[in-house]
Prior knowledge:
152 residues, five-stranded parallel beta sheet
Amino acid sequence: xxxxxxxxxxxxxxxxxxxxxxxxxxxxxxxxxxxxxxxxxxxxxxxxxxxxxxxxxxxxxxxxxxxxxxxxxxxxxxxxxxxxxxxxxxxxxxxxxxxxxxxxxxxxxxxxxxxxxxxxxxxxxxxxxxxxxxxxxxxxxxxxxxxxxxxx
Length: 152
């Protein structure tokens, strides 16, 4: 049986239980789990969001999680390019992507190279977006910009 190499990508900014759940579930479905940590530059380019925690610190946090075998810093927006760099067989994502335009495109593109996209329950009650809003309120800035409405 071929080795199942899993890849779970995210910002992993303001690390919370939803991030932990995705990594835990992903590890249960593969032999090797590679966590993709999206770089500061890519977050700004793709989501218009500056992370609270810098890339190298987020990498260190994610690398320390026992479910993760390896960390890859994402510096390109295209998951096919990342697949070429990493060589995963399974891509894990929160089910908030299931059935969306982005999710369907991801399934088509990765499916064409033999990668299976697997969805796990999204932890709706906790998100980096909600944490950013709470921090903004605590700071008195109450930044609820639309760019922050994207899930991390």
